[in-house]
């Protein structure tokens, strides 16, 4: 039990120091559903990956995503087009039109739902400054989207393997610190809402919270 709590505390500390994360006060949440603070596809907590957040209309509804990957994955899954895409400007933390953004691809900063990092800026100058300090190539939204779409199926396989490992770790945490439930969930976001509202596992945050959510969303399939 002590080892598990130490692991949870360590993970929370690491997440707190993640470049992608901002406080909930600084994060702009565009979607208005009950699950608004979670990615519409993978269920990850949006403020923790805010600097790679995207938003768009897919199937006529505005959704917010942890990454450009999840945005295009939903469009692929639903056989729909991405309409009016937006992205967080890493300089101002405001949402801007993706078509107007300059992306730095392949920097030393962490990637979200991909092996290659992608951060957006409102001006070419700020993008170049970031690339000079952290590496990477400055690209347009069209160029980045083309690259993402070409590698989407491969990335999905990689992510599914990673999520399966996360769900197994979530099962360990669930068995150690959570009250038991027979409820089933169709996605990770719904599982995390239930965890938050019922305090089934106390006040889990960060990666452990995501891992237990993954476990509950895939319970019976692990």
What does this structure look like?
The structure is a single chain. By secondary structure, the chain is α+β, with helices and mostly antiparallel strands. It is 44% helix and 14% strand. The protein has one domain. The protein has helices at residues 2-16, 68-78, 124-134, 141-177, 188-198, 206-217, and strands spanning 54-58, 61-65, 83-88, 95-97, 102-105, 118-121, 137-140. Strands 2-1-3-4 form a 4-stranded antiparallel sheet, with helices on one face. Strands 6-5-7 form a 3-stranded antiparallel sheet. α2 packs across α4 (141-177) and α5 (188-198) crosses α6 (206-217).
Whole-number radius of gyration?
Answer: 17 Å
Q: Helicity range of the residues?
A: 40-55%
Low-confidence stretches: 1-15
**How many strands, which pairing sense, and closed or not: the largest β-sheet?**
4 strands, antiparallel
> Structural class of the helix and strand makeup?
alpha+beta
Provide mean pLDDT, rounded. 90
Fraction in beta strands: 5-15%
Q: Into how many domains do the coordinates divide?
A: 1
In total, the number of strands is 7
- Tally of separate helices: 6
Strands across the major sheet, in which order? 2-1-3-4
What is the chain-wise order of helices and strands?
HEEHEEEEHEHHH
How far apart lie the N and C ends?
22 Å
